Amino acid sequence: MLLVKYVKSDLGGIIMDGELKRYSGIDLTKFICSFFVIMGHVPPFGVHNSSNIYTMLNFGLTQYICRLAVPFFFICNGYFLFRKIDFANPDSNQIKSRILKIIKLYIIWSAIYFPLSLTELIKHEKGFIHRVLVYIRDFLFMGSYVHLWYINGLIIALFIIAICLKLNLRPKAILLVSLFLYLIGLLDDSYYGLMNRIPLLSKVFEVYNKYFVTTRNGVFIAFFFVSLGMFISVKKPQITHKQSAVLFFISMLLMLIETFFLKYYSIARGFDNCIFLVPSVFFFFNLSSSIELYDSEKCSRLGTMSRLIYYGHLWVSIVILQLFDYLPEGLIATPLRFLMVVAITIMISLVVMKLSDMQRFKWLKKMY
What mean pLDDT, rounded, does the chain reach? Predict the structure, then answer.
């Protein structure tokens, strides 16, 4: 291991007792997960009208494997931020600084996606004013655009954790509170069919959904996974590479059974989160963190690129979707759109990163 005084961003490495520990496995996994996010919005096997093998493959990827991505990103944020915190005497300024940085990032990307949001504002059938109010609500609580709920959720999660630490709650207690909220959130998502059979409970969620639409937000989802990352950073579970691999495989198998059970019995309202996603992503993170690759600098760049891919891919997807209106109809049932989105998003991300290394365009770093 390299013995140097070197401070890396939370995508690269952390100094522990003067020793630089690089997390190249996590960086590479982030890069892979960014493609999982694209798959969630752009079906990798194309759009098919009939039920066939490609429809099943799309479901398996988008509603099963790809669900690891966003929780993984949340865990990484919790892990790398809170391993710097002294919980005996937590410095709230560190958390505040991180929250302010993410708020700036959120505003930048909300502005980038605002032209698309404006199109929806104009077209909204209930009127422009109503849609403006909806946009304000979404911006504050759900995400200013579809995928930007991740940044919004991260802000809310860190804010809640900061309050919990102010109340002198320990990481374990915070994790238990967040787990309780996560399980409540499942009742309005993957386990909606069960909740809906309980009159009083369904009425409560009906009122909640009238104002907040979904539990896929910072309170019910992000709070838990960021807290889990924080808990891992404190407890540092000693799990070997082989144990992580075996337990990850078992957890994913159980998650597969759970997913198809929910689909077969039409229980799920959505498949964003489920019970066995928790151990799956936990061991997924442990497995990734136990892998150290030779060229960690390149992996760190891939980790950085993963953020640009996540944030920027929907703009690319929408532009390409417009292009498909002028192409033969059969092409929409092929992986062509997905491949184009991936290729162009990577190219744009590389250009932004390259330019941001120049003094003249250093401000582009604010985008990631």
Answer: 90
Question: 329-339 pLDDT, tens per residue?
Answer: 777 778 999 99
Tokens of 300: 């760190």
Rg (CA), the chain: 21
Tally Cβ neighbours within 10 Å of residue 103.
Answer: 15
Segments in 265-366 forming alpha helices (H): 277-289, 296-324, 336-356
**DSSP 8-state class, residue 180:** H
Q: In this predicted structure, which of 21-35, 182-196, 198-212 has the lowest mean pLDDT?
A: 21-35
**Model confidence pLDDT, tens digit, residues 313-322:** 999 999 998 8
* Amino acid making up residue 350: L
CB-CB neighbours of 166 under 10 Å = 11
Note the Cα 7 to chain centre separation in Å: 25
Burial 178-188 (b: 16+ CB within 10 A, else e): beebbeebbbb
Q: How far apart are CA 303 and CA 280, in angstroms?
A: 21
Contact 150, 143 (CB under 8 A): yes
